[in-house]
Design brief:
alpha+beta; Transposase Inhibitor Protein From Tn5, Chain A, domain 1; 2 domains; 43% helix
Amino acid sequence: MTEILKTIELIEDKRQEKKIRHKLLDVVVIVLFAKLANADDWQEIEIFAKSNKDFLKQYIGLENGIPSHDTMQRVMGSIAPEYIQGVYKKWNELVNSREGEALKKIICIDGKTMRGNKSKEQKANHIVSAWCDMDGFCLGQKKVEEKSNEITAIPQLLDAIQVKGCVITVDAMGTQTEIVEKIKQKSADYTLAVKENQKNLYREISEYFGEEEFLKEIKDRGGYKITKEKAHSQIETREYYQCERIRWMQEKSRWRGMKSIGMICKTTEGAGEREIERRYYISSLPSDVELFARTVREHWSVEIMHWHLDVTFKEDANATLDKTAAQNLNIINKWCLSILRLFDVGKKMSLKKKRYCISMNSRKYLEQILNL
């Protein structure tokens, strides 16, 4: 982390030099530390900084004291998000030593709307993120004005990050031939959800997996996996089917590199009720039902990350209207999630409780984090 403080100093400061009272480094470090220590809005960030001024001065100058919450918001709104993302990426490169992992990395792409950023005059930021659960790290993100723009944002995001050799997962909205083309251009694989937005593809796959004789054949060929677990007083059974005998598909030629199709049949039983849900997928992976199951299950990790932004960091309640400042806070929140996952406070606890624990003894725990 101390190496990262040096990296922050390299961020381009576009403010007029004569008007600068607070260094950009000071503001970014205050925001990062405050976010780790359970501060959610700008006023709480200022309170944290004033309460820990002596500790902060060990690492940053603070020549003109603690900046006000309004000043910190303005400064964060002046920084191009690419710079904050670059610092976050540098931190990940320093921490992550998983080169040569035996397991394929899975990169999950999904969008989230920052509801607190909405007003009568503007739409809320919608952030499309590329999340790797194996690393616990957001590789990159792209801001769009609304969810429907995810389709154009995903190829741009893929161009901005390194995905060679990885498996990309996207929900049904992102199952587009242009996105598949971009994934293969980047020498990556894909497992993509299929719903009725791709009517012909959905019909072909759902009809195929609706035939019992084909399901039995898939099982006999080893393309089947079943898991059972108890959740919320219910028993959830997931059956995974994957088949690469797809030469019969009329839609196959439209999807570059497609080698297999898959289905998950989820059965939920509890309180005398039984519910069955089926989901369908296309993939550039050959038949390997264990890997197929991983790609499907790990896609939910990006949803969990979004859940943490809302619940652990109360992002939707943060009414930062400046779009750039809001986007930079979103990156810092994701950075804090990565740090908190690594940080051991001595006993098992949720990320939310870790933030509370840090707030109770900021000097002790932030010094430990600085030595990660």
